[in-house]
């Protein structure tokens, strides 16, 4: 069975190398790419089936020794336990579906082979990340994923803005990764090993001891690890790259910016949950960040007019939910929401892709109206996706989000709970608004060709998953039977707290319907007059994702550019060139003494002798 | 008695030196210089080194000064160059060098006065013959100092290298002088008057 | 007996006169002449010293200085002739081609 | 005599190459490559056939009489560290050769002669155990490099060559001064007059002068390894040097500075280097940040890569002076990885300059559409230079950071921010040269078609593809399986590290050093 585990990450890697070096024709690339991913998906499912009954299992396979100096010894060992099994299944299944989808979506693109090579490389890096047994191997997967997202966002490299978006994504995630690297190194000095399991064991022992040892170093490590997670999963300080990352092809956004890469941060925190338990204030900070991001994402999604940017902001807010769940200590709720979110967000993105595909690359939602009749399938899939997003009852989104809200309540965090509820309200509002604008109202642009069959199949499967995904995998809860979950069994939810999350989505959807009928959802035209109304300013503020871009440009980019531009000719080099000019100046001065007059020379000779003798006499 | 002779020759020497320096006419200067050299030769004689005196007269006054006379003869334009000379040098605009020279004399005298309080005096040849015997022993059998014989022995004894160097020096000076003074075609012919030189140049341009 | 002091005074003054001539005169020939005067001053000292110490070193040195003076004059005068050929006058102040 | 022949081979090869130009136009190329391959084989054979007793640190150790009166002997010795660096020299020599294959046309004999003499000088530097012999080879490797730059360089090559020579020469003289001072002090204290490293290392001198002598050595090596205040010769030299010369310069000549620090400064002056280590770590931090910021603002491609290597060598300096076993391993690894990645980058930039006759970033662009293979390689090596895990540079920087965090967290923090800046400038380089649409590729094709036929720009030819592919594989090998290199260098670094950490008990000291 361990060989299967070993094969899962290596298969996409082999196919990626094959595609890079061999660059076969279209059909062959599709077969290799989709084949390898679906094979590893199959392997993952097989593993699932075999390990379904065992509650607690650990599978380890070593692919080779990486480096061992003094007491730092790292190896390429893969570690499988219920958490990483779930992650592997999500990644490989969603990945396989998206590969199938993009096989037809990208078939008329000239360098398809490069696209599939990057996609395969991405999936293998993600699998290494999830299956890593030590933090440096995790970091290897982490950076590999960052690299592939950079390559895929900037896939259509001809437009300048695509490669700029790719640069922005890579640099912002790189900031998070460097913070994480510092955290890893500090962890190495704290626990003397980088093996994740040993760190968890040592932190559990530390937890048993009543007096907690040097907590501020451990909390610093946790904070830095969270910074890395925030970078990768686009949380508040480092989230401005995700909306711009929509410049890449839609399947890329579906796979990377909805299902897999952005969840790496959550996996990191979930995997090191015992370590984070040692730093309760960091967990609280994570929860706060989660809520802030959740509200930011939801409100900004309201003001967007581009279909994919709305979905990007909604991903940010759903990730905020997951971090909220992690912050209150229930990793299982977070991972469960991660799973459901992966399915319905992938569905939303892929149907959006199909929509754009048949509206021949029109992405502004106000230009697509009344597509209910011309695209019934897309309307249906979009409907299910939006329902799951808005967490209408009986959809998978409902179960996971409601679980998160319940966990926040159990963890005695009423304030955060209210934040979550407000977020849920806004989420329901913008998803309903999106659905109504795109599929109801008058038809102003006919959709030409309908979606190919491959895409339809994928959409069907994803619809099924996002509906039935609500059933919680049995293994998940036993893995995380961490004490925090059952912290306060006695505390029961008050009636109001129990029913509000159930009724809220239905109420907001009807509210949205009325607003749509009244025509509140018209695009706010920017007024020419100097006096920009408050509504205008608010809309602009939300449109740019709470203006983080302008803030960063002001604080970091402008001074950095100013200093580097000023210092282009290297002040130090200038100093050495001054040396040169000084010596030529000196030459010109001394030159004036050589007049060429013979009598001057002899006179100066005599004067010198006179002075010398005088000095001799004085001594 | 020797003291008196020395004093006279010294004064003659100084006056003639001063005159050579301040003379306007080149030939006068030369002649004054010759008299100075002869006076110095006499002083050498007084010191009791006849060989040096003879050499001074023969080589220095005789050969070197004659060389000077030849060159002045070649370059002297007669009256014109005397007039030029007046323009080139006049005592009133030579204040600076005069001042310098006097300071220098004063300093040199101050130096010479200090260490020599022990007024040793130079003894003419005959008086010192007795002390010479003792120190002549270490030197190889020089019969008596300052005689040409002992000079020659020394010259070709310990100092033979010096002789070779002097010879080399003279030889190189000879070659250098010949080479420098050689008349190359593009030079104007020094003994032609200015009009003839233009004529020569025109011819040269014609036939080249 | 001849007072050493006087001899030194004589040679130093000859030397100083030579220097005065060297600096003040602008005609190259006269500069060479004053050079000769300086040399004579020095020769005087050499021979006086040789006599004072009773050995022949001074005279040998005199011989060397003599050869030096002779060769120096020869080369000097050759140069004077060449300069005269090019400049037609021997004024030192006009010969400034070698300035910096 | 083995090591002496190792130096003699390139020297003699150079002479033959230089002479052989008269025989046939491209005879020197073949002779040079033959000579390099021969010396590579000789080096490998030395390593394989020498006995492997772990107790004796030196693989090969031979002394020849040189100046008996001053007890100066031509003492050559090779251990793991110098073996690895000589291997790098010869490999980069071959890479330089392959890039010079069709680029150097006029009087190529003299070019290959100089090329091989520089390599001989560098090998000498890595083998010399006697301080004066070290100084001799230190100067010997400069002179041919000066000619390489001054004759075959780009537009104002004389200025750059002179600047390069003056900087290193000044450093060298300072080193000579400190060598002599060291020998004299050593003589005063132990009555043995010797310049030999192995003798000097036994009895480190303990006088307050030791600090200043150590500083003399450090400055000489910092000028060569361009650290912050003395780096301004590198960008000019690289922009004006021909591609093979700048490959050799970047890949190996900078490493002589790092090697000098490891070999002569740390062991000879243990307490003095402890005294200087905070200042030097500060300088390293500054040069990392300064190099990165300067690289960001450059428009000339070669200057950009030059400043990036200033930033990378800052890591080596940081690694050397954090006096910790991990950091030392990291520094050596950084020297190797940086050597390979920068040599490749310079080769690519040379190719771009050869094909487009410009190094200006603003005129380049959209290379991916015209030269896909070259751009793919450029992307790979750009990623290597920003420290992408899985490649050699990352391992090196990781180890240096681990070592430095233990010793001085503040400097390590500065260095990690250097990582971010590294990403910034290499992404800018990749984006401005490979992505986007070529700014004037279309215009200059139109106006050029007037007189020249449409200049078809060919992608990489077979030879270049092989060299670059080999370098990619070596970087990946260093990234995923660096253990052999660590084992090779282990012996000498334990020696150095044990001087500094009293508590450092290398339990793996006795393990058998195996390839």
TrEMBL record, chain A:
Keywords: Membrane, Transmembrane, Transmembrane helix
Transmembrane portions of the chain: 26-45, 85-103, 115-132, 138-157, 169-191, 252-270, 282-303, 334-357, 377-395, 415-441, 453-471, 498-517, 598-618
Gene Ontology BP terms: ATP synthesis coupled electron transport; electron transport coupled proton transport
GO cellular-component term (any): endomembrane system
Superkingdom: Bacteria
GO molecular function, one term: NADH dehydrogenase activity
Keyword Membrane on entry: yes
Domain NADH-Ubiquinone oxidoreductase (complex I) chain 5 N-terminal: start-end pairs: 66-116
Topology of the protein relative to the lipid bilayer: Multi-pass membrane protein
Primary location class: membrane
Keyword RNA-binding applies: no
InterPro entries registered for this protein in UniProt: NADHpl_OxRdtase_5_subgr, ND/Mrp_TM, NU5C-like, Proton_antipo_N
Compartments (UniProt record): Endomembrane system; Membrane
Record domain NADH:quinone oxidoreductase/Mrp antiporter transmembrane: where: 132-427
PANTHER family linked to this entry: NADH-UBIQUINONE OXIDOREDUCTASE CHAIN 5
Protein name per Swiss-Prot or TrEMBL: NADH-quinone oxidoreductase subunit L
Origin organism lineage: Bacteria, Pseudomonadati, Pseudomonadota, Gammaproteobacteria, Alteromonadales
Gene giving rise to this polypeptide: nuoL
From TrEMBL, chain B:
Keyword Transmembrane: yes
Location relative to the cell: Cell membrane
Reaction(s) catalysed by this chain's protein: a quinone + NADH + 5 H(+)(in) = a quinol + NAD(+) + 4 H(+)(out)
Enzyme Commission number, as recorded: 7.1.1.-
Keywords: Cell membrane, Membrane, NAD, Quinone, Transmembrane, Transmembrane helix
Keyword RNA-binding found: no
Example of a GO MF term: NADH dehydrogenase (ubiquinone) activity
Family label: Belongs to the complex I subunit 6 family.
Protein's name according to its UniProt entry: NADH-quinone oxidoreductase subunit J
Automatic annotation (TrEMBL), chain C:
GO CC term (a single one): NADH dehydrogenase complex
Catalytic activity: a quinone + NADH + 5 H(+)(in) = a quinol + NAD(+) + 4 H(+)(out)
EC number: 7.1.1.-
Main location, first listed in the record: membrane
Superkingdom of the organism of origin: Bacteria
Subunit structure: NDH-1 is composed of 13 different subunits. Subunits NuoA, H, J, K, L, M, N constitute the membrane sector of the complex.
Name listed for the protein in its UniProt record: NADH-quinone oxidoreductase subunit K
Native source organism of the sequence: Shewanella hanedai
Gene: nuoK
TrEMBL record, chain D:
Membrane topology label: Multi-pass membrane protein
NCBIfam families xref list: NDH_I_M
InterPro entries the UniProt entry points to: NADH_Q_OxRdtase_chainM/4, NADH_UbQ_OxRdtase, ND/Mrp_TM
Keywords of the record: Membrane, Transmembrane, Transmembrane helix
Ranges of residues in domain NADH:quinone oxidoreductase/Mrp antiporter transmembrane: 128-417
Protein name, UniProt field: NADH-quinone oxidoreductase subunit M
UniProt GO MF annotations: NADH dehydrogenase (ubiquinone) activity; NADH dehydrogenase activity; ubiquinone binding
The species this protein was found in: Shewanella hanedai (Alteromonas hanedai)
């Amino acid at each position: 069975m361990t060989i299967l585990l070993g094969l899962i990450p290596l298969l996409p890697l082999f196919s990626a190398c094959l595609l890079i070096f061999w660059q076969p024709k279209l059909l062959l690339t599709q077969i290799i790419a989709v084949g390898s991913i679906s094979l590893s998906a199959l392997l993952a499912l097989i593993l699932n089936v075999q390990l379904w009954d065992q509650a607690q299992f650990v599978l380890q396979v070593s692919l080779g020794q990486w480096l061992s100096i003094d007491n730092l010894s790292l190896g390429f060992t893969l570690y499988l336990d219920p958490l990483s099994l779930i992650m592997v299944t999500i990644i490989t299944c969603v990945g396989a579906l998206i590969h199938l989808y993009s096989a037809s979506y990208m078939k008329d693109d000239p360098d398809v082979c490069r696209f599939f090579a990057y996609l395969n490389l991405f999936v293998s890096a993600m699998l290494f990340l999830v299956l890593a047994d030590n933090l440096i191997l995790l970091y290897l997967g982490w950076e590999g994923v960052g690299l592939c997202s950079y390559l895929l966002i900037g896939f259509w490299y001809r437009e300048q803005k695509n490669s700029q978006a790719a640069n922005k994504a890579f640099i912002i995630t790189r900031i998070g990764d460097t913070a994480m690297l510092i955290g890893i190194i500090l962890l190495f000095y704290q626990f003397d090993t980088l093996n994740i399991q040993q760190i968890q064991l040592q932190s559990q022992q530390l937890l048993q001891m009543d007096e907690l040892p040097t907590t501020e170093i451990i909390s610093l490590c946790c904070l830095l690890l969270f910074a890395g997670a925030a970078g990768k999963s686009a949380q508040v300080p480092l989230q401005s790259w995700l909306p711009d990352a929509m410049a890449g092809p839609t399947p890329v956004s579906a796979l990377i910016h909805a299902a897999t890469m952005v969840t790496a941060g959550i996996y990191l925190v979930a995997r090191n949950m015992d370590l984070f338990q040692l730093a309760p204030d960091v967990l609280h900070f994570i929860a706060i960040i989660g809520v802030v991001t959740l509200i930011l994402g939801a409100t900004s999604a309201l003001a967007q007019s581009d279909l994919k940017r709305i979905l990007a902001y909604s991903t940010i807010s759903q990730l905020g939910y997951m971090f909220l769940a992690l912050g209150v200590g229930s990793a299982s709720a977070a991972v469960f929401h991660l799973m459901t979110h992966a399915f319905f967000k992938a569905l939303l993105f892929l149907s959006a892709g199909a929509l754009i595909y048949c509206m021949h690359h029109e992405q502004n939602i106000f230009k697509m109206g009344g597509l209910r009749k011309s695209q019934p399938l897309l309307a249906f899939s979009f409907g299910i996706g939006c329902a799951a997003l808005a967490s209408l009852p009986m959809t998978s989104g409902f179960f996971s989000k409601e679980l998160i809200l319940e966990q926040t309540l159990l963890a005695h965090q009423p304030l955060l709970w209210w934040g979550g509820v407000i977020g849920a309200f806004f989420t329901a509002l913008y998803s309903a608004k999106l659905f109504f604008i795109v599929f109801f109202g008058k038809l102003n642009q006919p959709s030409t060709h309908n979606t190919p069959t491959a895409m339809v199949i994928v959409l069907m499967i994803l619809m099924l998953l996002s509906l039935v995904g609500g059933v919680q995998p049995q293994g998940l809860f036993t893995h995380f039977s961490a004490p925090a979950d059952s912290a306060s069994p006695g505390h029961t939810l008050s009636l109001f707290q129990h029913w509000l999350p159930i009724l809220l989505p239905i109420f907001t959807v009807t509210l949205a319907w009325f607003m749509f009928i009244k025509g509140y959802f018209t695009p706010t035209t920017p007024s020419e007059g100097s006096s920009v109304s408050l509504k205008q300013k608010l809309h602009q503020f939300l449109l740019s994702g709470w203006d983080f871009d302008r803030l960063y440009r002001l604080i970091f980019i402008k001074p950095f550019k100013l200093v580097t531009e000023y210092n282009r000719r290297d002040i130090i080099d200038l100093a050495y060139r001054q040396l040169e000019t000084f010596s030529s100046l000196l030459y010109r001065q001394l030159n004036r003494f050589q007049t060429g007059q013979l009598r001057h020379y002899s006179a100066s000779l005599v004067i010198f002798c006179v002075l010398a003798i005088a000095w001799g006499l004085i001594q | 008695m020797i003291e008196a002779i020395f004093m006279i020759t010294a004064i003659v020497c100084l006056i003639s030196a001063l005159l050579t320096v301040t003379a306007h006419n080149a030939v006068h200067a030369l002649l004054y210089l010759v008299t100075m050299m002869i006076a110095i030769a006499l002083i050498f004689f007084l010191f009791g080194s006849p060989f040096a005196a003879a050499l001074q007269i023969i080589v220095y006054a005789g050969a070197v000064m004659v060389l000077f006379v030849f060159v002045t003869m070649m370059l002297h334009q007669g009256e014109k160059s005397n007039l030029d000379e007046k323009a080139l040098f006049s005592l009133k605009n030579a204040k600076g060098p005069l001042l310098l020279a006097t300071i220098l004399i004063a300093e040199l005298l101050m130096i010479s006065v200090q260490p020599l309080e022990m007024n040793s005096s130079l003894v003419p040849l005959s008086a010192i013959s007795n002390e010479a015997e003792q120190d002549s022993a270490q030197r190889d059998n020089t019969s008596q100092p300052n005689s040409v014989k002992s000079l020659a022995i020394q010259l070709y004894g310990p100092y033979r290298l010096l002789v070779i160097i002097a010879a080399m020096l003279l030889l190189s000076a000879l070659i250098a002088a010949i080479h420098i003074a050689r008349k190359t075609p593009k030079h104007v012919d020094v003994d032609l008057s200015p009009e003839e030189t233009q004529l020569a140049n025109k011819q040269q341009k014609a036939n080249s | 007996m001849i007072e050493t002091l006087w001899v030194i005074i004589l040679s130093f003054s000859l030397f100083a006169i030579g220097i005065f001539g060297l600096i003040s005169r602008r005609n190259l020939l006269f500069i060479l002449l004053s050079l000769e005067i300086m040399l004579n001053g020095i020769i005087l000292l050499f021979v006086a010293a040789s006599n004072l110490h009773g050995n022949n070193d001074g005279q040998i040195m005199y011989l060397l200085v003599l050869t030096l003076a002779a060769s120096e004059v020869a080369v000097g005068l050759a140069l004077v002739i060449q300069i005269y050929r090019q400049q037609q006058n021997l004024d030192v102040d006009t010969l400034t081609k070698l300035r910096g | 005599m083995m090591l002496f022949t190792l130096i003699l081979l390139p020297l003699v090869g150079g002479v033959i190459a230089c002479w052989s130009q008269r025989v046939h136009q491209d005879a020197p190329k073949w002779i040079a490559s033959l000579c390099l391959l021969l010396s590579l084989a000789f080096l490998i054979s030395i390593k394989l056939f020498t006995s492997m007793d772990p107790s004796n640190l030196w693989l090969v150790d031979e002394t020849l009489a040189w100046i008996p009166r001053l007890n100066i002997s031509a003492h050559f010795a090779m251990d793991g560290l110098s073996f690895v660096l000589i291997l790098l020299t010869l490999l980069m020599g071959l890479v330089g050769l392959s890039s010079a294959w069709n680029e150097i046309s006029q009087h190529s004999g003299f070019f290959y002669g100089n090329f091989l003499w520089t390599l001989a000088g560098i090998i000498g530097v890595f083998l010399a155990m006697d301080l004066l012999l070290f100084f001799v080879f230190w100067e010997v490797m400069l002179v041919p490099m000066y000619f390489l730059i001054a004759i075959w360089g780009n537009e104002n090559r004389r200025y750059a060559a002179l600047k390069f020579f003056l900087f290193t020469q000044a450093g060298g003289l300072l080193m000579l001064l400190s060598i002599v001072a060291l020998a004299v002090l050593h003589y005063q204290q132990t009555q043995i007059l010797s310049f030999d490293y192995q003798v000097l290392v036994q009895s480190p001198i303990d006088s307050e002068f030791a600090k200043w002598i150590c500083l003399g050595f450090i400055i000489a090596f910092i000028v060569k390894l361009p650290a912050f205040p003395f780096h301004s010769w590198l960008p000019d030299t690289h922009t004006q040097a021909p591609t093979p010369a700048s490959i050799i310069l970047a890949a190996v000549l900078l490493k002589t500075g790092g090697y000098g620090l490891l070999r002569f400064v740390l062991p000879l002056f243990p307490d003095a280097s402890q005294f200087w280590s905070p200042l030097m770590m500060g300088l390293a931090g500054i040069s990392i940040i300064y190099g990165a910021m300067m690289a960001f603002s450059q428009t000339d491609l070669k200057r950009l890569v030059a400043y990036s290597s200033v930033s990378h060598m800052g890591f080596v300096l940081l690694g050397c002076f954090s006096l910790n076993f991990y950091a030392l391993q990291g520094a050596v690894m950084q020297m190797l990885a940086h050597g390979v990645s920068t040599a490749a980058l310079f080769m690519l930039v040379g190719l771009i300059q050869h094909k487009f006759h410009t190094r200006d970033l603003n005129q380049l662009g959209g290379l991916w559409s015209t030269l896909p293979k070259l751009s793919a390689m450029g992307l790979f090596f750009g990623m290597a230079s920003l420290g992408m895990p899985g490649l050699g540079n990352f391992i090196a920087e990781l180890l240096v950071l681990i070592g430095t965090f233990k010793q001085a967290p503040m400097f390590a923090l500065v260095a990690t921010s250097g990582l971010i800046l590294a990403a910034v400038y290499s992404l800018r380089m990749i984006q401005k040269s490979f992505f986007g649409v070529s700014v004037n590729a279309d215009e200059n094709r139109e106006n050029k078609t007037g007189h020249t036929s449409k200049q078809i720009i060919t992608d990489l030819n077979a030879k270049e593809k092989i060299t670059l592919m080999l370098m990619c594989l070596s970087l990946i090998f260093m990234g995923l399986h660096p253990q052999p290199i660590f084992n090779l260098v282990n012996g000498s670094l334990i020696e150095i590290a044990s001087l500094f950490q009293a508590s450092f008990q290398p339990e793996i000291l006795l393990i058998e050093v195996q390839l």
